[in-house]
């Protein structure tokens, strides 16, 4: 009986049935909901209602975590994965108030959970034509947005209690965007060595991801041109022959040498 339940759980998380697909979409919506909740509560005082919702989210994430451990075939590898560690920190931070601990700021680590939704790419590709047509652009944009969420969270978590200029997520996001775009108005600065290191990370990695998105938008690495023989859709912009079948291609170019 235990094995049957485990198999059913595995099919729910990894199967291709409509029920499994709806379940994974539900997990994605839940992840986004927790992130929006964390952002919204940064603008208010944490009362009984917020603490209760914290506990509900913490229990739900804990149940999801236990299920993933149960179906994992390589549990040690799963347990040391960065996303798993982020989930553990999220569980602790959501439930910490019940134990009287002041670890509420760790809730931002839940934003790392967005990275885990990349397994949805195959499903999104199959379900949405718009996603299939613009996958490179959407993935590059998601990469940039995830980075901005993570860095905004780090700025908020490390600065809100010591830096009077960082009072909520809006302040942290404002700093992250100005640093990422190298605008640097200077009205908000991060304090301490850790703050300076975060600023460096935002500028170096953020600009790299931003340029990657710009490259995909204006000069993509691949172009969509269906091969007349085998149907392969993605080719190098200067391809003369299909890499899959060798057929001659006539991809329209911009005249660059």
UniProtKB/TrEMBL annotation:
Gene3D superfamilies: 1.10.287.70, Voltage-gated potassium channels. Chain C. One of its GO terms (biological process) is monoatomic ion transmembrane transport. It is found in: Membrane. The chain crosses the membrane at residues 25-43, 55-71, 78-99, 137-157, 169-190, 196-214. InterPro entries: K_chnl_dom, VG_K_chnl, Volt_channel_dom_sf. It is a multi-pass membrane protein. Its main location: membrane. Residues 145-218 form the Potassium channel domain. Keywords: Ion channel, Ion transport, Membrane, Transmembrane, Transmembrane helix, Transport. This is Potassium channel family protein.
């Amino acid at each position: 009986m235990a094995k049957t339940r485990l198999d059913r759980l595995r099919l729910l998380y990894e199967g291709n049935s409509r029920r499994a697909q709806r379940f994974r979409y539900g997990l994605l919506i839940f992840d986004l909901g927790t992130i929006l909740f964390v952002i919204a509560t940064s603008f208010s005082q944490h009362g009984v209602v917020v603490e209760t919702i914290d506990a509900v989210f913490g229990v739900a994430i804990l149940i999801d975590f236990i299920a993933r451990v149960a179906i994992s075939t390589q549990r040690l590898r799963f347990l040391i994965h960065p996303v798993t560690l982020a989930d553990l920190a999220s569980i602790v931070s959501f439930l910490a108030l019940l134990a009287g601990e002041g670890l509420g700021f760790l809730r931002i680590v839940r934003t790392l959970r967005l990275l885990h939704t990349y397994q949805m790419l195959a499903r999104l590709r199959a379900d949405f034509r718009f996603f299939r047509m613009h996958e490179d652009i959407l993935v590059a944009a998601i990469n940039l947005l995830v980075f901005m969420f993570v860095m905004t969270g780090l700025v908020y978590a490390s600065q809100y209690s010591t830096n009077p200029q960082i009072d909520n997520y809006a302040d942290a996001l404002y700093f992250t965007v100005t640093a990422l775009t190298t605008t640097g108005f200077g009205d908000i600065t991060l304090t301490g060595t850790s703050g300076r290191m975060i600023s460096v990370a935002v500028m170096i990695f953020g600009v790299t991801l931003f340029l990657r998105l710009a490259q995909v938008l204006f000069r993509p690495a691949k172009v969509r041109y269906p091969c007349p023989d085998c149907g392969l859709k993605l080719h190098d912009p200067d391809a003369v022959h299909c890499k899959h079948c060798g057929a001659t291609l006539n991809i329209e170019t911009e005249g660059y040498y």
